[in-house]
Amino acid sequence: LTQAGGQILGTLVSGWLANRVSTKMGYNNIVMGTHLLSMVITPLYIIFGCSNQPIYGHEGRNGIQLNMTDTCECRGTKNLISCGDDGLNYLSPCYAGCQSVTDNVFTQCSGLTEFNNMNLTSGLCATDCHGNFILYVALHAVQNTLMSMSTIPMRLLIL
């Protein structure tokens, strides 16, 4: 939605701007100005972005064996990132050695050395990054709009 909406709005504004300016220098100023403003937004993604949550169990980190499929009934299943009772994400209930499952809650996870018999639920753990995500989406929409505001002046320069 942000991509398509930004493209549509930017192209409409681009046509309006190109109609107001009729010189090559004016078109060039629009193209350079919109690209420069768009580049100014890029570092804001780093400032307001959310950091990736670590996923434990991959490559045997944090005391979890690389694969414990011999102790649980997970043969042939795909990785299912799961959230533990400790608030950490795990690669799969199979990698955590979980023995049983009921309603997407995996129990008796013996592979977690520090938290014996911890429960896992399927899906990523909740984060406090919801506000930053909304800001990220808004910045993305503004950047797409700015980039597409140069579309028509750029085509007129080419012609």
UniProtKB/TrEMBL annotation:
One of its GO terms (cellular component) is basolateral plasma membrane. GO terms for biological process: sodium-independent organic anion transport. It comes from the Eukaryota. GO terms for molecular function: sodium-independent organic anion transmembrane transporter activity. InterPro entries: OATP. This is Kazal-like domain-containing protein. It comes from Candidula unifasciata.
